[in-house]
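Side project, low priority. Logging it here so it doesn't get lost.
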Amino acid sequence: MTNVVKKKALGSLLGIVVAVVLYSSSDVRLPVLDTTADNYFREAITKAGVAYATCRVTNASVSVVKESSIGLEPAGVGVSLAIGQALDPIDDMTERLSDVLVTAITALGVQKLAYEISISFAPPLLAAFLVVLSILLWFRQDRVKALQKTIMGFALFIAVARFCLPVSSMANQLVDKHFFAERISQAQEELALGSAELDGLGDFSLPEIDGVLGTIKNSSAFLKRKSTQLRSAVGGTVSNMGDIIESLLRLTFLYVGIFLIQVIALPLLSFYFLSKTVNAIFSTNVPVILHHPVPSGDTKPEPPVEEPPPNLAPENDTHLETANDQIDVNTHGN
C-alpha cells in the first residue's frame, strides 16, 4: 500500500512540475519546427503577394489599353477604332488569377493565424489538463477513471494540433522547393516579358506648361508619343497574347495546386499521421475523423415482432381427455 501511495505522489508531483514548465513556456518557439514554419509562411505569403501585384499591374495596363482608341481620318472621314477590346482574354485571365491568388493568400494567412494561436494557447491548456490529472490520480471511482481518459484524449488532441502545422510546413517547404518554386518563377518571368510593352504605358507624365503655344505644342507631342506607344503596345501584346495567356494559365494552375496540396491536403495528412502515431504509442483514441451523431429522428423504427400463433395442441388434448372421461362414466354406469 505504501508503494502505491508513493507512486501516486511521484506521478502527481511530476505532473505538477511539467504543468508549471508548460505554463511558463507560453509563446516559446521550438528551434527547428517553429523556425521552419515561420520561414515557410513568410516566404509563401510574400511570393503570393508578389504574384498578385504583378497580376494587378498587368490588369491595370490592359484596362488602360481597353479604354483607349485610335482615331483615323481616311479621306477626311473620322473613324475611331477601339482596338483595346482585343485584349479581353488577357483581362479575363488576370481577373481569374487574381481571385485564385487572393484565396491562396487568405488561406495561408488563416493557417499562420491558427499556428500563432496554437503557440500561445496550447501550453497553458496542457498545463491545466496536467494539474487536473494529477489531482484525479488519487481517486479510484469508475467515473473518475472515465473522466481521466477523456481529459487525456483532449490533452493529446491539443498536442497533435500544436505540432500539426509545423510538421506540415516542413513538408510544404520541400514540395515548394522541388516543384512549385521553379515553375512559378518561370511563369512570372514569361509573363513579365510578354507584358513589358503594356507596363510601359504606366509611365504617364503630363506635358510641361510653357505658355499657350508651348503648352499646345508639348501636348501635341505628348499625344503623338502616347499614340505611338499605344499602337506599339497593342501590336506587341496581341502578337504575344498566346504566351501571356499560357503564363497566366500556368500561374492559375500552380496556385490552385498550392491551395489544394499545401493548404488543405498536407495539413490534414499531417494531423492524420500524428493522431495515428499518438494512438499507437499511448493506446488512446484521439479522433482522426469526426463523425456526426445520427439524430434520433432519423433512426428507422424497428419492425413489430410477430407473435407466434396460439398452440392448439393443449386444447385438443383437453377435449380428448374429456371425451375419454365421458366414455369411462358411461361404462361404469352400464
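Brief comment: Residues 71-81, 290-299, 312-316 have pLDDT under 50 and may be disordered.
Revisit when time allows.
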